[in-house]
Amino acid sequence: MKKLVFSILIGLIPLIYSCTYSTGGENFVDVDQNTTPPQVQNLTLDLNQDTLVVYQKTRYNFHFVSDKQPILGVVITLNNQDFVYDTVVGSIDIDPKVIPEGVYSMAMKVYTHTGTGSLADKTGTEAYLFQKTWVVIVEHPRAPDLKVTSSIENGFLRFHWDKFDSPFFYSYRLFIDNSGIGASYDHEFTDSNITSFVDSFYVGGKIRLQLFAKYRDLDGNIKATEFDYTYDYPLEMHIQENPDSLTVSWPSQPFQSKAFFSTSQSIDKTAMGADTSITLPAPGMGRTIDYQLEFQPVKKWRDFYLTYYQMKRYTLGVDDGQSFTEVVYDPSIHSFFVKSADYLRRLDAHLEVIASYDHSYDYKDNHSLAISKNHQTVYAVIAQQRRKFSMTLLNDLGGMPNGFGDNATFRVVKNLNDTIFLVGHNSNFSLLNILSNRVITTTDPLRTSGSIAYYQFAVSSDGHYAAFANELGVSVYEVVNDRQFVLQYENSNAYYSCLFNPREPNELVLNAQDGIHVMDCSTGQITRNLNQFVANPINFDPVTNNLLLVSNSQKKIYVYDYENNVVKLTLNHRASAWDFRLLNNTILFDAGYHLAVSDYVH
Amino acid sequence: MSIKRIIPLVSLCFISIGLKGQGFEFRPAIGWGTYAMADFKDFQQYAIPDIGVNVKSVKEFPGYANFGADVLYYLNPSFGFGGTTGYYSTGARNSYADYSGSYRMDIKARAVNFGGIVSYKQEVGSNLFLGLELSSGIKLANIDIAEKLVIPSQGFDETYQFESHNWWMMPQVRISRYFFTDISFGIYAGYEYNAKSKIETRENVLHYLVGEHGPVKQDWSGTRVGVYVTIPMNNL
User: Fold this and answer.
1) I want to staple B101 with a disulfide (CB 3.0 to 4.6 A). Which of A21, A119, A294, B217 is the partner?
2) How far apart are CA A177 and CA A199, in angstroms?
3) Is residue A3 in some structural domain?
4) Do B53 and A122 count as a contact with CB atoms less than 8 A apart?
5) How close B151 comes to chain A (CA, Å)?
6) Percent of chain A at pLDDT above 70?
7) Any idea what the CATH number is for the domain that residue B230 is in?
């Protein structure tokens, strides 16, 4: 019995335990599931395109409205990241600084209530879904690589460049340095489709285009990449001069312009139209002339025209750069010796410098060149010092007083025997012993009136005669035994200058007002007249013995075969008669130009 | 220690006492009780979520069966004293369900009483006794609150566990009749008054359940009726 009761009691324990209250009951609501979805509309325009190209931080806004069931929320998924909005108005920022460059898909899901009123509807887990996807192209700005070219179209220069086809394009900025007309100008285009520019100012010459391709970087700042392009349509002027005429020609220009021609000798301009050459009277030898072409664009620069100038500086002859006060030629060593106020130079037969002695400016700049008999030494008075130079390299071998004082002006110096020098100076001829530096004898003062010029003094090639001719007459002295002067001849005719024929030391060519006369000094008789010339006899060429005559009035240069009485060359000139010399069959102009006679006379 | 463990141990203890004692009565009972749980009912309403659907309280701590056992020692045929224990449970549910899902919050409350009892009985007829008793003691309670939401792709299922203890006292009237020589059957009725107490989390007694008006307190007060059997210990 006890065991039975005990067992019953033990058995009751789990029974009691299992009889613990258990909650029950369910509040089940029968909900109508059949509803129709609403119409959802986006009121903003930011997201209307299917492809979104993002190159800077951009905000895309949305504002959804539903005509029936309210919108639960919006979820935008971009780059595996969800952006959840519980409002119908919102935005998403796409920042290329955060998102690597690439192509992404962006999905926008708009959830609306179903309107069933169910638990899932109310808690937002049952919804109508409206979805749209976009292709998002994230680009990072980078400098473009544009190629610039040019072409000529309808007479205008057109620059072309590659299209900067990028969403972060900002503008093309053109900075043009038009050296032709000497102007700079710039333009800016904010339309990336504009890939060329017609420069109606360009009419030739060098033009530089700096194309700045501007773009915005990730921070919105504007950056630029420069592309440099230079175009040149050089205008090569050609000048051809013959003894009678000078022709300036140039290639035809493809650019629309008006062409004018002018020279530095005149302020007049000649409209050239379509002509590409102009022929002028030959100006001959002399200082350079600027020949200028001027091309005027059809378009005004503000209220006036800028023009493209092209100039060519020209004179007949070759520019050797060796300007001179005095020049001599020694045929035995085929060398010129030129003397100016600040140098003494030895030139070869082609007028190339062999040696030079440069010194400070010598205001006197005396005519004083002399060469030793053995052709090893050159003498010259520089800064009133009589100096010796080695022939080869013009090394300064020393100086000493000139023998006639610091105020002396030398007109001509003739080396008689390397010791005795015949010197025309001031208004005298003197014999100077250069070893003792003693004046052996001096003539009476020459008859002078007004200015005295070196070409009024002459010494025969053998040193036997010395002559002085001016408007008061001519005086011819005979040098006797290199020790005294004997007045050989004198008259009172008017002369401009005189010179001796080096091959006939007795022949004195007198440049008289009534003509050119040749006098035999030994007799005082006129043996020849050169009255066919209205010109100044300048010098005999020591090589050819041709006589150079230069007319100031007729602006003519004559190379006269003295012995054969033939004018070998006639040229124009526009300088002073005494600016020219004829040496080694070359006409030298003291401004540093020369003309080989053989180039004209064959 | 949970109630699930206490119940068997205490029952065995009483049984062992009865087996060894003389003049003892062992009195198992089964009854029905109501439970005030006023705070809890407020909390139940307060906890109805605002999710757009009509969540209703389908159960609000209804009366439910309880079980108990007393051990009494009678000093004389009328007066005795002893120990008492009992096991109580009730619960509540907030619910909503439709085709798309369901929401449910269940509150399960279980309690065990331990206490002393004084008894006075008087034979009022042939083998018919009328007794008055007063019992009092401590009530240990476990409360589980489980909240579950089942909807497509979402939802949750959370359970929160609390415990509480309080003092109780119950006067009662008993009527019994001996049908066999020593074993009587009776009925009883009484009202158990419970002192209210906070409902604390098991993990930290400083954390307790709070409702709309402050801390939620349990109150098991209510009517107790039931039947019982008296078995003299010396017969066991």
Assistant:
1) A119
2) 11
3) no
4) yes
5) 6
6) 98
7) 2.40.160.20
Q: Tell me whether residue A580 is in a domain.
A: no
Same domain, A227 and A312: no
- Count of the separate structural domains present in chain B: 1
User: Who wins on pLDDT, B10 or A587?
Assistant: A587
The answer to whether B36 contacts chain A (CB < 8 Å) is: no
For residue A564, pLDDT over 90 is answered with yes
Any B CB within 8 A of A22 CB: yes
CA distances from A498 to A399, A421, A590, B223 (A): 31, 20, 20, 168
Whether residue A84 lies within 8 A of chain B, CB to CB, comes out as no
Mean pLDDT throughout A390-396? 93
| Contacts with A10 from chain B: Cβ below 8 Å | 15
Q: What is the rounded distance in angstroms from the CA atom of residue B232 to the CA atom of residue B184?
A: 9
Q: Which residue of A has its CA nearest to B151?
A: A120
- Give the Cα separation of B208 and B3 in Å (integer): 19
Q: Is A16 in Cβ contact with B67 (below 8 Å)? A: yes
CB-defined contacts A:B, below 8 A = 123
Does A353 reside within a domain? no
Parent domain of A295: 238-316
Could you report the per-residue pLDDT of B173-225, keeping only the tens digit for each? 999 998 877 788 999 999 999 999 889 888 877 788 888 888 999 899 999 99
Q: Confirm or reject contact between A32 and chain B (CB < 8 A).
A: no
| Cβ distance of A119 and B152 shorter than 8 Å | no
- A173 plus A189 within the same structural domain: yes
**Could you tell me if A405 lies within 8 Å of chain B, comparing CB atoms?**
no
Residue A204 in any domain: the answer is yes
pTM, two decimal places = 0.60
Q: Indicate which CATH number applies to the domain containing A217.
A: 2.60.40.10
Residues 6+ apart with CB under 8 A from A131: A107, A108, A109, A110
Is A273 found in the same domain as A188?
no
Domain count, chain A: 3
Instruction: Report which DSSP code applies to B208.
Output: B
Distance from C-alpha of B164 to C-alpha of B208, rounded to nearest angstrom: 10
Contact residues on chain B for A28, CB-CB shorter than 8 A: 97-98
Angle of helix A2-18 relative to helix B3-20, nearest 10 degrees? 160
